[in-house]
Amino acid sequence: MNHVLHIHYHGLTPTDPRYPRALDVLATISARVQALPPDAAIADVTGAQKYFERGPEGLAQLIRVRTLAWTGNPTIIGAGPSLMLAAMAAAATAPGHITTVPDTDEAIVAFLHPRPVAALPGIGPATARTLSHHGLHTIGDIARTPLATLQRLLGASTGRQLHDRAHAHDPRTVTPHTPPQTTTLSRTFPHDELDPHAHHRAVLALTHQLGARLRTQHTAARTLTLTARYADRTTTSRTRTLPEPTAHTRALTLSATALYDAFALQRARVRGLSLTAETTDAAAAVHQLTFDPQDAKARSIEAAVDRARHRFGPNAVLPAALATRPTQT
């Protein structure tokens, strides 16, 4: 029997520094916490009940008080026996309050069945209109409708999904993780730059700088986002998920170059480029072994370059394309 809390931190913005502190509060209650940036989280408090000698609502009260004390931020908390029910309970709750769905068939039916079909996760406006057109206005109406009828109306997959959810079937579990961390590096040109070769040199400089930083921090990039800023202050961004998390400069350069090429710039006046990596712990990144001797050689050279830069400075070793020619006298 699982007991899940869905916590919404009322009024937080995506960059609010209180969000990490709010997650720290949850970590004092349960080890099974899943962040839902920028302003929510879920926690499995099944194991915490015995330790704190409190039920789900008592633990929710404790979280509400601690969060208010640590961050000054009000919470909206829904408690239920599944992720879906906890989330729906939170959606029906006012700031500073708690709604609990007890883990009994009677309580679940009493909570679910009177609610409009749009309250069920997975039902958008178009699906709600289709259901309403056929006389299905509440979740209870869906629950009382034969599966075959729902599948005929909505398709096999959607019909099955809504049938299961209307009967409170939700096999999902809390998956502990923390919000992704990001590293951003930027290059601004001395003037609005038209030359694609200059753009490519900037991308190369960014990936070499990024790779060195990631390896120093013992992190690896999972995704890359390249953003171009233009003379008219507009921007264009492209994002790519990497085949595997990496801090290997060559892999970063290939991906970032592909992102730049995807811009398909035609005489664009570029003011600057920035490269953002969503990162993970390098220990969690598994390098796919290959039989390519060039890959192994490149990684050995990279390690030697890192040692040289650590000893003599970040510009001790640079790619030929980034090296500055000495001034002739």
Automatic annotation (TrEMBL):
Q: Tell me which UniProt keywords the record has, alphabetically.
A: DNA damage, Nucleotidyltransferase, Transferase
Q: Which residues form a coiled coil?
A: none
The UniProt annotation puts the region (Disordered) at: 165-193
Q: Where is the composition biased (Low complexity)?
A: 173-184
| Taxonomy, superkingdom | Bacteria
| InterPro entries for the chain | DNA/RNA_pol_sf, DNA_pol_Y-fam_lit_finger_sf, DNA_pol_Y-fam_little_finger, IMS_HHH_1, Rev_trsase/Diguanyl_cyclase, SulA_CellDiv_inhibitor, UmuC
Output the Gene Ontology terms for molecular function: damaged DNA binding; DNA-directed DNA polymerase activity
Q: Which Gene3D superfamilies match?
A: 3.30.70.270, 5' to 3' exonuclease, C-terminal subdomain, DNA polymerase, Y-family, little finger domain
Q: Which GO terms describe its biological process?
A: DNA repair
- PROSITE patterns of this UniProt entry? UMUC
Q: Which residues form the UmuC domain?
A: 21-124
**According to the UniProt record, what class of enzyme is this?**
transferase
- What are the EC numbers? 2.7.7.7
Q: Quote the Pfam families the UniProt record gives.
A: IMS_C (PF11799), IMS_HHH_1 (PF21999)
**Keyword field contains Transmembrane:** no
Functional note = Poorly processive, error-prone DNA polymerase involved in untargeted mutagenesis. Copies undamaged DNA at stalled replication forks, which arise in vivo from mismatched or misaligned primer ends. These misaligned primers can be extended by PolIV. Exhibits no 3'-5' exonuclease (proofreading) activity. May be involved in translesional synthesis, in conjunction with the beta clamp from PolIII.
* Family statement drawn from the similarity comment of this UniProt entry: Belongs to the DNA polymerase type-Y family.
Name of the protein in its database record: DNA polymerase-4
Give the originating organism. Answer: Streptomyces spectabilis
